[in-house]
Structures are given as C-alpha cells and as structure tokens.
Amino acid sequence: MQYHGSCHCGNIQFDVEGELKHATACNCSICQRKGTLLWFVGADQVKLLTPREKITTYTFNKKVIQHQFCPVCGVETFGEGKDPSGNAVFAINIRCLEGIDPLAVPSDLYDGKAI
Predict the structure, then answer these.
(1) How many domains does one find in the chain?
(2) Cα–Cα distance, 82 to 7 (Å, whole number)
(3) Domain CENP-V/GFA spans what residues (predicted)?
(4) Per-residue three-class SS string for 80-99
C-alpha cells in the first residue's frame, strides 16, 4: 500500500510504500519530547517529493540518526539511519501520514533511554 506524508505546512512531502502493521514508540530524549510513532522501512520504499535543501537535519549524541524536520513548521517527518545489517532505513513518523489513525496502529515500546 502507498501512503502520502507531509509536515504540517506541506513544505516536506513524501510517499512511502509498504504494509503499516505496527509502529514503535521510543522513549529516548528526543522521541519522548516529540511524541513520534515510528515505522521503519527500507530507504528504497520512500520517495521524497521535496528537495533535500528544504529539509533540516538534527543529529545528537552518537550522531547515527539524522532527524529530518521542516524548518518552517518544525514537524519531524522522518529520521534516517542504518539497520543492524548496515542497510539504509527511514523511520517514518506515522503521525505525518494521511488517511490513517496513528493511535489505531499497534505499537511497541523501544527503550531508547537505556542506550
């Protein structure tokens, strides 16, 4: 299934292909504050519809995840990193996807505070 996502103001837009079966709620210092619900997909499943220069990146701590957000409205639409095998992945904030109820998607807790 294809989903369309965007930030609040529409400056960042993207499409993602896949089956949204569950999400992850992380309690690390940034995810807890932002309230993101994350869906991890391969980078090849995401099509950015916004040029990279219109997206702002924030990294912290070990600097392995690039948190991508809109410089206009401040919404974090997704993060980028690598899975344990070294493959490029996106962590899609499902709260930015159109046509879904993010609270109806089953989610599990990832203990990011412990890292």
Answers:
(1) 1
(2) 23
(3) 3-111
(4) EEECCCCCEEEEEEHHHECC
Contacts of 30 (CB under 8 A, 6+ apart): 60, 67
| Residue with tokens 């990294």, as numbered in its chain | 59
What would the pLDDT profile of 62-106 be if each residue is shown by its tens digit? 888 999 999 999 999 999 999 999 999 999 999 999 999 999 999
Domain carrying residue 106 = 2-114
Pairing of strands 13-17, 2-6: antiparallel
pTM for the full predicted model: 0.94
CATH number at residue 46: 2.170.150.70
**What does residue 87 show for φ and ψ, rounded to 5 degrees?**
-80, 140
Instruction: Give 20's contacts (C-beta < 8 A, 6+ positions apart).
Output: 1, 3, 39, 94, 97, 100, 105
Residue 1 DSSP code: -
Asked if 15 and 47 touch (Cβ cutoff 8 Å), the reply is yes
